[in-house]
Amino acid sequence: MIIPVDRLLRRLRQVPSRAGELRALRRRLRTARAAETSPEEQALALELRALKLEISHAFGAVSTCTRCVPHHNRGVPAEQRARLPFSGGECCGGVTEELFSDDELAALALAGTRARDLDAPITDHGGCAFRGLEGCTLTVANRPQRCVHYTCKLLREELRTRGDLAPIQGLLAQLQQRMNRFVEARHERLDDELFQSLETALVDARDQAGTPVTNR
């Protein structure tokens, strides 16, 4: 596999803490892409991707996300805060592994997200691995559903002032409903697979012991 030079250089210059998170995340994504899934999961993942893009278009250009003050910068004088990284986007200060849960990664994988799509900044590492000085470095389609869904109080006020809050909340409700169903479908399949493997193991154990199996 040939890695583009610019991507290779970014990886070599990457902050160690972020580099470790990215390696783990890309490994988990590759595993998710290789997993067996159901047709319903595949359809839902594509619905989620389309809804995320529709919601992003509805949000348009917002100013709130560059004006909120992260908790670790509170109490710092404004003139000093202006020189600090991550002057906004407190909601992006979470833990990468938690934001990209197994369910979120499964949905992304089924919708077409690849390891090379997880493009991260090489600036200071604070919070999510994809949190850059100018916002998230991931395209909307490659972000977890929860990141697209989250709207803080300040952002809701901005949308309300614009007159866009109600229609966007309707889209967000659809997104959450589809994600909830995706999680249900995925776990139903995983439970079925576990039950089938246990049943097979039990039958094999009985056969090896010479005990007849009674159908019920």
Give a written overview of the molecule.
The protein is an all-alpha fold and about 220 residues long. The protein has one domain (about 5-210). It is built from nine helices and two strands; from the N terminus they run ααααααββααα. It has helices at about 5-10, 15-35, 40-60, 80, 95-100, 100-110, 145-150, 155-160, 165-210; strands at about 130, 135. A two-stranded antiparallel sheet has the order 1-2. A hairpin with a 2-residue loop joins strand 1 (about 130) and strand 2. Helix 2 (about 15-35) packs across helix 6 and helix 3 packs antiparallel against helix 9. The longest helix has about 45 residues, at about 165-210. It is globular.
What structural keywords apply?
2 strands, single chain, two-stranded antiparallel ribbon, globular, mainly alpha, 216 residues
Total strand count, please? 2
Order of helices and strands: HHHHHHEEHHH
- Unreliable parts: none
Strand order, biggest sheet?
Answer: 1-2
How many distinct helices? 9
In terms of quaternary structure, the protein is single chain
What is the percent of helical residues?
A: 55-70%
> What is the CA–CA distance across the termini?
52 Å
The coarse silhouette is globular
User: Per DSSP, what share of the residues sits in E-state strands of 2 or more residues?
Assistant: under 5%
The largest β sheet comes out as: 2 strands, antiparallel
Give me the secondary-structure category.
mainly alpha
As for the number of domains, it is: 1
The average pLDDT is 86
What Rg do the Cα atoms give? 22 Å
